[in-house]
Design brief:
Elements: E1 25-31, E2 37-43, E3 47-48, E4 58-64, E5 67-71, E6 74-78, E7 83-86, E8 92-96, E9 101-106, H1 134-149, E10 156-160, E11 174-179, H2 190-195, E12 198-200, E13 210-214, E14 225-230, H3 236-247, H4 249-265, H5 270-276, H6 278-294
Parallel strand pairs: 11-14
Antiparallel strand pairs: 1-2, 2-9, 3-8, 4-7, 4-9, 5-6, 5-8, 10-11, 12-13, 13-14
């Protein structure tokens, strides 16, 4: 293995350099539900760490290079595939050669994520006037996604959210639905989307969606794009809501007034802002459903190459 796979190097999980005992280490950490952590470290230079003590157990395995454990007066060289268990409370250090990669499992919190050091205020809610360039921004991003994914997946790309409604003020974030029917392929999307600047939110509580964000500090100056990976049966409400607002400017104006009021009241509460809009969204979707029930049935036969909705 010449490098850790991309899914192990999610920028959201990058370790703050100052929290490392060994100089020149690039690290990524993942949190367990029980407070434990697993870290993937790559040593960019030959170095020795200062002696330190943890109040939890540590397990280390070498993937590549050589990691020499300095513990209780001993030098214990570990080569690829070799492992060592360090009990809590035992002073230890380590010496590495450049290019060494190791995996560490900690029984407690060992490292802080880089993103945790970013100020919370950078992710505030801000509504901006409608921008005529938003559709073109979506087209450009869709082209970049298509170029990266190529023919490896069967998918469709949709522009959703307020930036997809002409004339509607919105947060200046292009919301994209990536419709992928085969859920077994979803995990394979992570690496190509990371290559074009997206960060995968691996702690999303919604099991029916994969969520990616571009531009989020500290990896940018602010959110610019969201990707929601969804199955075909989960995208209908977003498309119906978008299309209804496009067809009913009066309802779009009501939605804009609501968003502006909520943005003032919930400037630093993104989750609260989203939840506070849910009543209006449900109201619109009920009207769509009622209109569909009242519409006369379509008795036309399918024409070649055409599917009726």
């Amino acid at each position: 293995m010449h490098d850790f796979p991309a899914f192990m190097k999610n920028p959201v999980n990058r370790i703050v350099s100052s929290s490392q005992a060994t100089p020149g280490v690039e690290g990524y950490v993942y949190d367990g539900a029980d407070g434990s952590q697993m870290a993937f470290w790559t040593c960019g230079e030959t170095a020795t760490s200062a002696e330190h003590v943890h109040d939890y157990d540590e397990y280390v395995v070498v993937v590549e290079g050589c990691y020499t454990l300095l513990i209780q007066g001993q030098r214990i060289p570990l080569k690829p595939g070799q492992e060592y268990f360090i009990p809590k409370g035992v002073p230890h250090g380590g010496a590495v050669i450049a290019g060494t990669r190791t995996i560490h499992a900690f029984g407690g919190t060992r490292a802080a994520r880089a993103q945790q050091s970013a100020p919370a205020a950078v992710d505030t809610i801000a509504i901006t006037p409608a921008d005529q360039s938003w559709p073109a921004q979506f087209d450009a991003e869709a082209a970049a996604i298509q170029s990266e994914l190529g023919q490896a997946f069967v998918y469709a790309i949709h522009h959703v959210g307020s930036t997809a409604v002409p004339g509607l003020a919105a947060k200046p974030i292009i919301d994209i639905v990536l419709e992928v029917a085969d859920r077994e392929c979803w995990s394979l999307l992570i690496e190509p989307l990371q290559r074009i600047g997206y960060v995968y939110w691996d702690q999303n509580p919604d099991e029916g969606e994969m969520f990616f964000v571009k531009g989020m500090p500290p990896f940018g100056t602010g959110r610019t794009h969201h990707i929601h990976v969804l199955a075909p049966d989960a995208i209908g409400s977003q498309l119906r809501f978008r299309d209804y607002l496009i067809a009913h400017p009066d309802e779009a104006a009501r939605y804009e007034r609501l968003k502006r009021e909520l943005a003032v009241r919930l400037t630093n509460d993104r989750d609260g802002y989203t939840k506070a809009k849910s009543e209006f969204v449900e109201h619109v979707l009920r009207k769509v459903a009622e209109a569909k029930q009242k519409a006369p049935p379509d008795t036309r036969k399918d024409a070649p190459g055409r599917a009726l909705a």
